Amino acid sequence: MDDKSKLKRGILVTFVAKYSNVFAQLIINSVLARLLMPQEFGIIAVITVFIAFFNMLGDMGVGPAIIQNKSLKKKDISDIFKFTVVAAIVIAVGFALFSFFIAYFYENKIYIKLGFLLSISVFFSICNIVPNALIYKRQNFRLAGSINIIVNVFIGIITITLAFNGWSYYSLVMDSILKSLFIFILTFKFSRIKIKKGYSPESIKKIKQYSSYQFLFNFINYFSRNLDNILVGKFLGSSTLGYYDKAYKLMLYPVQNLTNVITPVLHPVLSEYQDQIEVIYESYIKVVKILAYIGVFVSAYCFFSSREIIRIMYGSNWDASIPIFRILSMTIIIQMILSSIGSIFQATGYVNKLFSTGVVSACFTITAIVTGVVTRNIEILGYGLVVAFVLNFIQCFYVLITQVFHKNFGSFLFGLRNIFIIGIIMVIGYLLMSRVYISNVLLSAIAKFIIGTITYLIGLIITKEYKLFKNIIKK
Protein backbone atom coordinates (compact mmCIF):
# COMPACT_ATOMS: atom_id res chain seq x y z
CA MET A 1 0.00 0.00 0.00
CA ASP A 2 1.49 3.40 -1.00
CA ASP A 3 1.88 6.39 1.32
CA LYS A 4 -1.26 8.13 0.04
CA SER A 5 -3.43 5.06 0.59
CA LYS A 6 -2.06 4.55 4.10
CA LEU A 7 -2.59 8.21 4.93
CA LYS A 8 -6.18 8.16 3.63
CA ARG A 9 -7.02 4.90 5.40
CA GLY A 10 -5.53 6.13 8.65
CA ILE A 11 -7.33 9.47 8.46
CA LEU A 12 -10.69 7.81 7.66
CA VAL A 13 -10.46 5.35 10.55
CA THR A 14 -9.26 8.04 12.94
CA PHE A 15 -12.05 10.35 11.77
CA VAL A 16 -14.79 7.88 12.67
CA ALA A 17 -13.28 6.97 16.04
CA LYS A 18 -12.36 10.54 16.92
CA TYR A 19 -15.71 12.11 16.22
CA SER A 20 -17.61 9.39 18.00
CA ASN A 21 -15.41 10.25 20.97
CA VAL A 22 -15.86 14.01 20.50
CA PHE A 23 -19.64 13.68 20.46
CA ALA A 24 -19.57 11.68 23.69
CA GLN A 25 -17.13 14.09 25.37
CA LEU A 26 -19.22 17.14 24.45
CA ILE A 27 -22.27 15.63 26.11
CA ILE A 28 -20.32 14.57 29.21
CA ASN A 29 -18.64 17.98 29.65
CA SER A 30 -21.91 19.80 29.04
CA VAL A 31 -23.56 17.83 31.85
CA LEU A 32 -20.61 18.28 34.22
CA ALA A 33 -20.58 22.06 33.60
CA ARG A 34 -24.11 22.19 34.95
CA LEU A 35 -23.33 20.03 38.00
CA LEU A 36 -20.06 21.65 39.10
CA MET A 37 -19.11 25.28 39.74
CA PRO A 38 -16.32 27.28 38.01
CA GLN A 39 -14.25 27.25 41.21
CA GLU A 40 -14.32 23.44 41.32
CA PHE A 41 -13.13 23.24 37.71
CA GLY A 42 -10.49 25.86 38.54
CA ILE A 43 -9.04 23.77 41.38
CA ILE A 44 -8.70 20.73 39.12
CA ALA A 45 -7.32 22.90 36.29
CA VAL A 46 -4.47 23.99 38.56
CA ILE A 47 -3.33 20.50 39.52
CA THR A 48 -3.90 19.19 35.97
CA VAL A 49 -1.19 21.60 34.81
CA PHE A 50 1.34 19.92 37.10
CA ILE A 51 0.14 16.44 36.14
CA ALA A 52 0.95 17.34 32.53
CA PHE A 53 4.45 18.37 33.62
CA PHE A 54 5.20 15.12 35.42
CA ASN A 55 3.72 13.08 32.56
CA MET A 56 6.01 14.98 30.22
CA LEU A 57 9.00 14.14 32.45
CA GLY A 58 8.03 10.48 32.22
CA ASP A 59 7.54 10.55 28.46
CA MET A 60 11.11 11.70 27.73
CA GLY A 61 10.34 11.60 24.00
CA VAL A 62 10.24 7.79 24.11
CA GLY A 63 6.94 7.39 22.22
CA PRO A 64 7.90 9.27 19.02
CA ALA A 65 11.38 7.69 19.13
CA ILE A 66 9.88 4.18 19.11
CA ILE A 67 7.68 5.09 16.13
CA GLN A 68 10.61 6.62 14.23
CA ASN A 69 13.20 3.88 14.86
CA LYS A 70 12.59 0.92 12.55
CA SER A 71 15.47 -1.22 13.89
CA LEU A 72 14.18 -1.90 17.42
CA LYS A 73 13.86 -5.58 18.34
CA LYS A 74 11.39 -7.18 20.76
CA LYS A 75 14.10 -7.26 23.45
CA ASP A 76 14.68 -3.52 22.93
CA ILE A 77 10.96 -2.82 23.35
CA SER A 78 10.87 -4.94 26.51
CA ASP A 79 13.83 -3.08 28.02
CA ILE A 80 12.40 0.33 27.13
CA PHE A 81 9.07 -0.63 28.69
CA LYS A 82 10.80 -1.74 31.91
CA PHE A 83 12.65 1.55 31.98
CA THR A 84 9.40 3.53 31.69
CA VAL A 85 7.74 1.50 34.47
CA VAL A 86 10.59 2.30 36.86
CA ALA A 87 10.43 5.95 35.77
CA ALA A 88 6.66 5.89 36.36
CA ILE A 89 7.12 4.77 39.96
CA VAL A 90 9.75 7.41 40.70
CA ILE A 91 7.83 10.23 39.00
CA ALA A 92 4.49 9.29 40.58
CA VAL A 93 6.07 9.39 44.05
CA GLY A 94 7.71 12.69 43.10
CA PHE A 95 4.37 14.14 42.08
CA ALA A 96 2.75 13.06 45.36
CA LEU A 97 5.49 14.84 47.31
CA PHE A 98 5.35 17.87 44.99
CA SER A 99 1.70 18.34 45.97
CA PHE A 100 2.94 19.87 49.25
CA PHE A 101 4.57 22.67 47.22
CA ILE A 102 1.39 23.12 45.15
CA ALA A 103 -0.63 23.48 48.37
CA TYR A 104 1.88 26.03 49.69
CA PHE A 105 2.02 28.02 46.44
CA TYR A 106 -1.77 28.26 46.09
CA GLU A 107 -2.39 28.40 49.85
CA ASN A 108 -4.86 25.52 49.79
CA LYS A 109 -4.19 22.20 51.56
CA ILE A 110 -6.71 20.36 49.41
CA TYR A 111 -3.99 19.99 46.77
CA ILE A 112 -2.07 17.60 49.04
CA LYS A 113 -4.90 15.07 49.10
CA LEU A 114 -5.61 15.59 45.39
CA GLY A 115 -1.93 15.21 44.56
CA PHE A 116 -1.61 11.86 46.32
CA LEU A 117 -4.71 10.55 44.56
CA LEU A 118 -3.71 11.81 41.13
CA SER A 119 -0.21 10.33 41.42
CA ILE A 120 -1.98 7.07 40.49
CA SER A 121 -3.05 8.68 37.22
CA VAL A 122 0.52 9.86 36.59
CA PHE A 123 1.85 6.32 37.11
CA PHE A 124 -0.47 4.63 34.61
CA SER A 125 -0.13 7.43 32.05
CA ILE A 126 3.65 6.97 31.94
CA CYS A 127 3.35 3.15 31.84
CA ASN A 128 1.13 3.55 28.78
CA ILE A 129 3.77 5.36 26.68
CA VAL A 130 5.40 2.29 25.11
CA PRO A 131 2.20 0.24 24.49
CA ASN A 132 0.51 3.26 22.89
CA ALA A 133 3.53 3.97 20.68
CA LEU A 134 3.56 0.36 19.46
CA ILE A 135 -0.09 0.52 18.42
CA TYR A 136 0.57 3.70 16.40
CA LYS A 137 3.80 2.28 14.98
CA ARG A 138 1.80 -0.63 13.60
CA GLN A 139 -0.65 1.96 12.24
CA ASN A 140 -3.55 0.31 14.05
CA PHE A 141 -5.49 3.57 14.23
CA ARG A 142 -8.85 1.81 14.54
CA LEU A 143 -7.75 0.06 17.73
CA ALA A 144 -6.34 3.25 19.25
CA GLY A 145 -9.55 5.12 18.52
CA SER A 146 -11.77 2.32 19.82
CA ILE A 147 -9.90 2.13 23.14
CA ASN A 148 -10.28 5.87 23.70
CA ILE A 149 -13.98 6.06 22.95
CA ILE A 150 -14.89 2.98 25.00
CA VAL A 151 -12.97 4.20 28.05
CA ASN A 152 -14.10 7.83 27.76
CA VAL A 153 -17.79 6.96 27.48
CA PHE A 154 -17.71 4.36 30.26
CA ILE A 155 -15.70 6.52 32.68
CA GLY A 156 -17.65 9.64 31.65
CA ILE A 157 -20.88 8.01 32.85
CA ILE A 158 -19.23 7.15 36.18
CA THR A 159 -17.93 10.73 36.52
CA ILE A 160 -21.38 12.24 35.92
CA THR A 161 -22.89 9.86 38.47
CA LEU A 162 -20.29 10.88 41.08
CA ALA A 163 -20.79 14.60 40.38
CA PHE A 164 -24.55 14.21 40.62
CA ASN A 165 -24.12 12.57 44.03
CA GLY A 166 -22.09 15.48 45.42
CA TRP A 167 -18.50 14.30 44.89
CA SER A 168 -17.53 17.82 43.74
CA TYR A 169 -14.02 17.97 42.23
CA TYR A 170 -13.33 14.42 43.45
CA SER A 171 -15.52 13.24 40.57
CA LEU A 172 -12.99 14.82 38.18
CA VAL A 173 -10.14 13.22 40.13
CA MET A 174 -11.70 9.78 39.75
CA ASP A 175 -12.26 10.54 36.05
CA SER A 176 -8.52 11.06 35.57
CA ILE A 177 -7.48 8.01 37.60
CA LEU A 178 -9.91 5.57 36.02
CA LYS A 179 -9.24 6.75 32.46
CA SER A 180 -5.47 6.33 32.79
CA LEU A 181 -5.91 2.90 34.43
CA PHE A 182 -8.30 1.41 31.87
CA ILE A 183 -6.54 2.91 28.86
CA PHE A 184 -3.28 1.35 30.06
CA ILE A 185 -4.88 -2.06 30.67
CA LEU A 186 -6.44 -2.19 27.20
CA THR A 187 -3.46 -0.70 25.37
CA PHE A 188 -1.00 -3.04 27.09
CA LYS A 189 -3.16 -6.04 26.23
CA PHE A 190 -3.49 -5.20 22.54
CA SER A 191 0.08 -3.91 22.04
CA ARG A 192 1.33 -7.49 22.53
CA ILE A 193 4.48 -6.48 24.39
CA LYS A 194 6.63 -9.49 25.20
CA ILE A 195 8.48 -9.01 28.49
CA LYS A 196 11.95 -10.53 28.11
CA LYS A 197 14.35 -11.55 30.89
CA GLY A 198 17.09 -9.19 31.95
CA TYR A 199 17.73 -5.56 31.07
CA SER A 200 20.27 -3.79 28.87
CA PRO A 201 20.81 0.00 28.73
CA GLU A 202 21.80 -0.38 25.07
CA SER A 203 18.10 -0.32 24.12
CA ILE A 204 17.69 3.15 25.57
CA LYS A 205 20.86 4.32 23.83
CA LYS A 206 19.35 3.41 20.45
CA ILE A 207 16.66 6.08 20.85
CA LYS A 208 18.56 8.47 23.12
CA GLN A 209 19.52 11.13 20.58
CA TYR A 210 16.10 11.32 18.93
CA SER A 211 14.17 11.17 22.20
CA SER A 212 16.42 13.79 23.85
CA TYR A 213 15.47 16.52 21.38
CA GLN A 214 11.83 15.42 21.56
CA PHE A 215 11.95 15.64 25.35
CA LEU A 216 13.54 19.10 25.29
CA PHE A 217 10.85 20.30 22.91
CA ASN A 218 8.14 18.85 25.15
CA PHE A 219 9.75 20.51 28.16
CA ILE A 220 9.79 23.94 26.54
CA ASN A 221 6.34 23.47 25.03
CA TYR A 222 4.92 22.53 28.42
CA PHE A 223 5.79 25.86 30.00
CA SER A 224 4.60 27.89 27.04
CA ARG A 225 1.29 26.00 27.02
CA ASN A 226 0.62 25.83 30.76
CA LEU A 227 2.14 28.94 32.30
CA ASP A 228 -1.16 30.76 31.78
CA ASN A 229 -3.06 28.34 34.03
CA ILE A 230 -0.34 28.41 36.68
CA LEU A 231 -0.23 32.22 36.89
CA VAL A 232 -3.95 32.89 36.40
CA GLY A 233 -4.77 30.41 39.17
CA LYS A 234 -2.22 32.02 41.50
CA PHE A 235 -2.84 35.73 40.90
CA LEU A 236 -6.42 35.94 39.57
CA GLY A 237 -8.06 33.15 41.59
CA SER A 238 -9.56 29.72 40.94
CA SER A 239 -12.92 31.12 39.74
CA THR A 240 -11.25 33.26 37.05
CA LEU A 241 -9.10 30.28 36.12
CA GLY A 242 -12.26 28.18 35.83
CA TYR A 243 -13.78 30.62 33.33
CA TYR A 244 -10.51 30.99 31.41
CA ASP A 245 -9.78 27.26 31.37
CA LYS A 246 -13.27 26.40 30.11
CA ALA A 247 -12.98 28.97 27.31
CA TYR A 248 -9.50 27.78 26.35
CA LYS A 249 -10.45 24.09 26.35
CA LEU A 250 -13.60 24.78 24.36
CA MET A 251 -11.49 26.64 21.80
CA LEU A 252 -9.16 23.63 21.69
CA TYR A 253 -12.01 21.24 20.82
CA PRO A 254 -11.95 22.02 17.09
CA VAL A 255 -8.15 22.38 17.14
CA GLN A 256 -7.54 19.01 18.75
CA ASN A 257 -10.48 17.08 17.39
CA LEU A 258 -10.18 18.24 13.79
CA THR A 259 -6.39 18.04 13.56
CA ASN A 260 -6.13 14.83 15.61
CA VAL A 261 -7.91 13.07 12.79
CA ILE A 262 -4.83 13.75 10.67
CA THR A 263 -1.77 14.49 12.84
CA PRO A 264 -1.58 11.12 14.71
CA VAL A 265 -1.44 9.45 11.30
CA LEU A 266 1.26 11.69 9.81
CA HIS A 267 4.26 10.57 11.86
CA PRO A 268 3.70 6.77 11.73
CA VAL A 269 2.97 6.80 7.99
CA LEU A 270 5.41 9.42 6.73
CA SER A 271 8.28 8.21 8.93
CA GLU A 272 8.55 5.29 6.48
CA TYR A 273 9.59 7.87 3.86
CA GLN A 274 12.03 9.80 6.07
CA ASP A 275 14.67 9.65 3.34
CA GLN A 276 12.26 10.86 0.63
CA ILE A 277 11.70 14.52 1.48
CA GLU A 278 9.72 15.26 -1.69
CA VAL A 279 7.19 12.52 -0.92
CA ILE A 280 6.63 13.98 2.55
CA TYR A 281 6.43 17.54 1.21
CA GLU A 282 3.81 16.76 -1.44
CA SER A 283 1.62 14.91 1.07
CA TYR A 284 2.06 17.54 3.77
CA ILE A 285 1.16 20.57 1.63
CA LYS A 286 -2.20 18.94 0.90
CA VAL A 287 -2.70 18.36 4.62
CA VAL A 288 -1.90 22.02 5.39
CA LYS A 289 -4.45 23.24 2.86
CA ILE A 290 -7.15 20.92 4.19
CA LEU A 291 -6.51 22.09 7.77
CA ALA A 292 -6.48 25.73 6.67
CA TYR A 293 -9.76 25.56 4.76
CA ILE A 294 -11.49 23.78 7.62
CA GLY A 295 -9.92 26.12 10.16
CA VAL A 296 -11.05 29.35 8.53
CA PHE A 297 -14.69 28.22 8.72
CA VAL A 298 -14.43 27.10 12.35
CA SER A 299 -12.57 30.25 13.45
CA ALA A 300 -15.12 32.59 11.89
CA TYR A 301 -18.11 30.67 13.21
CA CYS A 302 -16.76 30.40 16.79
CA PHE A 303 -15.81 34.10 16.85
CA PHE A 304 -19.23 35.35 15.79
CA SER A 305 -21.18 32.66 17.70
CA SER A 306 -19.25 32.74 20.97
CA ARG A 307 -22.28 33.70 23.09
CA GLU A 308 -24.42 30.95 21.61
CA ILE A 309 -21.72 28.28 21.92
CA ILE A 310 -20.95 29.02 25.59
CA ARG A 311 -24.64 29.19 26.51
CA ILE A 312 -25.48 25.93 24.73
CA MET A 313 -22.46 24.05 26.02
CA TYR A 314 -22.25 25.26 29.62
CA GLY A 315 -25.26 27.42 30.45
CA SER A 316 -25.59 31.06 31.54
CA ASN A 317 -23.43 30.50 34.67
CA TRP A 318 -20.41 30.56 32.37
CA ASP A 319 -21.11 33.87 30.57
CA ALA A 320 -17.83 35.28 31.91
CA SER A 321 -16.08 32.84 29.52
CA ILE A 322 -17.65 34.42 26.43
CA PRO A 323 -15.21 37.36 25.85
CA ILE A 324 -12.05 35.27 26.20
CA PHE A 325 -13.52 32.47 24.07
CA ARG A 326 -14.32 35.00 21.31
CA ILE A 327 -10.75 36.30 21.35
CA LEU A 328 -9.14 32.86 21.41
CA SER A 329 -11.35 31.76 18.50
CA MET A 330 -9.15 33.87 16.22
CA THR A 331 -6.27 31.45 16.87
CA ILE A 332 -8.13 28.29 15.86
CA ILE A 333 -7.06 28.33 12.21
CA ILE A 334 -3.44 29.08 13.14
CA GLN A 335 -3.31 26.37 15.79
CA MET A 336 -4.90 23.83 13.49
CA ILE A 337 -2.16 24.31 10.93
CA LEU A 338 0.60 24.56 13.54
CA SER A 339 -0.52 21.37 15.28
CA SER A 340 0.65 19.31 12.31
CA ILE A 341 4.17 20.70 12.10
CA GLY A 342 5.63 18.59 14.92
CA SER A 343 4.77 15.36 13.11
CA ILE A 344 6.71 16.54 10.04
CA PHE A 345 9.82 17.48 12.00
CA GLN A 346 9.59 14.02 13.60
CA ALA A 347 8.98 12.15 10.35
CA THR A 348 11.91 13.85 8.61
CA GLY A 349 14.19 13.29 11.62
CA TYR A 350 14.70 17.01 12.28
CA VAL A 351 13.73 16.91 15.96
CA ASN A 352 16.60 19.35 16.64
CA LYS A 353 14.77 21.97 14.59
CA LEU A 354 11.52 21.06 16.37
CA PHE A 355 13.30 21.95 19.60
CA SER A 356 14.82 25.21 18.33
CA THR A 357 11.51 26.48 16.93
CA GLY A 358 9.88 25.43 20.19
CA VAL A 359 12.25 27.66 22.17
CA VAL A 360 11.39 30.70 20.04
CA SER A 361 7.66 29.92 20.25
CA ALA A 362 7.90 29.65 24.02
CA CYS A 363 9.44 33.13 24.24
CA PHE A 364 6.52 34.65 22.31
CA THR A 365 3.88 32.76 24.29
CA ILE A 366 5.37 33.38 27.73
CA THR A 367 5.67 37.11 26.99
CA ALA A 368 1.96 37.22 26.12
CA ILE A 369 0.97 35.31 29.26
CA VAL A 370 3.05 37.42 31.64
CA THR A 371 1.70 40.62 30.08
CA GLY A 372 -1.88 39.45 30.59
CA VAL A 373 -1.30 38.38 34.20
CA VAL A 374 0.56 41.58 35.13
CA THR A 375 -2.36 43.67 33.82
CA ARG A 376 -4.72 41.27 35.66
CA ASN A 377 -6.88 41.11 32.55
CA ILE A 378 -7.54 37.79 30.81
CA GLU A 379 -8.78 39.59 27.68
CA ILE A 380 -5.37 41.24 27.28
CA LEU A 381 -3.90 37.80 27.85
CA GLY A 382 -6.10 36.48 25.03
CA TYR A 383 -5.05 39.19 22.58
CA GLY A 384 -1.43 38.56 23.50
CA LEU A 385 -1.85 34.87 22.69
CA VAL A 386 -3.33 35.77 19.30
CA VAL A 387 -0.20 37.78 18.45
CA ALA A 388 2.05 35.04 19.84
CA PHE A 389 0.44 32.33 17.70
CA VAL A 390 0.78 34.45 14.55
CA LEU A 391 4.50 34.95 15.25
CA ASN A 392 4.89 31.24 16.04
CA PHE A 393 3.28 30.31 12.74
CA ILE A 394 5.67 32.52 10.78
CA GLN A 395 8.90 31.36 12.44
CA CYS A 396 7.99 27.63 12.61
CA PHE A 397 6.94 27.35 8.99
CA TYR A 398 9.84 29.48 7.80
CA VAL A 399 12.25 26.94 9.32
CA LEU A 400 10.28 23.94 8.04
CA ILE A 401 9.83 25.18 4.48
CA THR A 402 13.30 26.68 3.96
CA GLN A 403 15.57 24.43 6.06
CA VAL A 404 13.84 21.05 5.93
CA PHE A 405 12.10 21.06 2.55
CA HIS A 406 14.43 23.66 0.96
CA LYS A 407 11.52 25.50 -0.66
CA ASN A 408 10.65 29.19 -0.96
CA PHE A 409 8.70 30.49 2.06
CA GLY A 410 7.05 33.26 0.05
CA SER A 411 5.68 30.73 -2.43
CA PHE A 412 4.33 28.67 0.45
CA LEU A 413 2.44 31.68 1.87
CA PHE A 414 1.19 32.68 -1.58
CA GLY A 415 -0.30 29.21 -1.94
CA LEU A 416 -2.52 29.96 1.07
CA ARG A 417 -3.78 33.33 -0.23
CA ASN A 418 -7.30 32.11 -0.97
CA ILE A 419 -7.85 31.36 2.72
CA PHE A 420 -7.74 35.09 3.45
CA ILE A 421 -10.25 35.79 0.69
CA ILE A 422 -12.69 33.18 2.03
CA GLY A 423 -12.24 34.51 5.56
CA ILE A 424 -13.00 38.09 4.50
CA ILE A 425 -16.17 36.98 2.66
CA MET A 426 -17.37 35.15 5.79
CA VAL A 427 -16.67 38.16 8.02
CA ILE A 428 -18.69 40.42 5.69
CA GLY A 429 -21.59 37.96 5.82
CA TYR A 430 -21.55 37.83 9.62
CA LEU A 431 -21.29 41.62 9.96
CA LEU A 432 -24.36 42.06 7.76
CA MET A 433 -26.22 39.48 9.85
CA SER A 434 -25.27 41.22 13.13
CA ARG A 435 -28.00 43.78 12.51
CA VAL A 436 -30.55 41.01 13.17
CA TYR A 437 -30.79 39.86 16.81
CA ILE A 438 -32.21 36.43 17.67
CA SER A 439 -32.82 35.98 21.41
CA ASN A 440 -33.07 32.18 21.35
CA VAL A 441 -29.45 30.96 21.50
CA LEU A 442 -30.11 27.68 19.69
CA LEU A 443 -31.93 29.36 16.79
CA SER A 444 -29.26 32.06 16.69
CA ALA A 445 -26.50 29.42 16.54
CA ILE A 446 -28.28 27.61 13.70
CA ALA A 447 -28.87 30.86 11.77
CA LYS A 448 -25.21 31.86 12.09
CA PHE A 449 -24.11 28.41 11.00
CA ILE A 450 -26.26 28.72 7.87
CA ILE A 451 -24.88 32.20 7.12
CA GLY A 452 -21.35 30.93 7.67
CA THR A 453 -21.90 27.95 5.40
CA ILE A 454 -23.40 30.06 2.60
CA THR A 455 -20.62 32.67 2.67
CA TYR A 456 -18.01 29.92 2.97
CA LEU A 457 -19.35 28.18 -0.13
CA ILE A 458 -19.43 31.52 -1.98
CA GLY A 459 -15.79 31.98 -1.05
CA LEU A 460 -14.89 28.51 -2.30
CA ILE A 461 -16.63 29.19 -5.61
CA ILE A 462 -15.01 32.60 -6.10
CA THR A 463 -11.53 31.25 -5.35
CA LYS A 464 -12.28 27.97 -7.19
CA GLU A 465 -10.98 26.07 -4.15
CA TYR A 466 -14.09 23.90 -4.19
CA LYS A 467 -12.10 21.72 -6.58
CA LEU A 468 -9.85 20.66 -3.68
CA PHE A 469 -12.81 19.40 -1.65
CA LYS A 470 -14.34 17.84 -4.75
CA ASN A 471 -11.19 15.81 -5.31
CA ILE A 472 -11.07 14.78 -1.63
CA ILE A 473 -14.68 13.54 -1.74
CA LYS A 474 -14.03 11.63 -4.98
CA LYS A 475 -10.99 9.91 -3.49
Tell me what the structure shows.
The chain has 475 residues and is mainly alpha-helical. It has 22 helices and no strands. The protein is globular.
Quick structural summary:
This protein has 475 residues and is mainly α.
Q: In terms of topology, how is this protein built?
A:
Elements: H1 3-35, H2 38-59, H3 62-68, H4 74-106, H5 110-127, H6 129-137, H7 141-164, H8 169-191, H9 202-235, H10 238-259, H11 263-270, H12 277-304, H13 306-314, H14 322-329, H15 332-338, H16 341-347, H17 351-374, H18 378-404, H19 409-414, H20 417-433, H21 441-463, H22 466-474
Helix pairs in contact: 1-7, 1-11, 2-4, 2-5, 2-9, 2-10, 3-6, 3-9, 4-5, 4-9, 5-8, 6-8, 7-8, 9-10, 9-17, 10-12, 10-14, 10-15, 11-16, 12-14, 12-15, 12-20, 12-21, 13-21, 14-18, 15-18, 17-18, 20-21
Structural features:
single chain; mainly alpha
Percent helix among the residues? over 70%
Tally of separate helices = 22
β content, as a range? under 5%
- Unreliable runs: none
What structural category arises from helix and sheet content?
mainly alpha
Rg, Cα atoms, Å: 22 Å
Q: How much is the average pLDDT?
A: 82
Protein name: Lipopolysaccharide biosynthesis protein
Organism: Inconstantimicrobium mannanitabidum
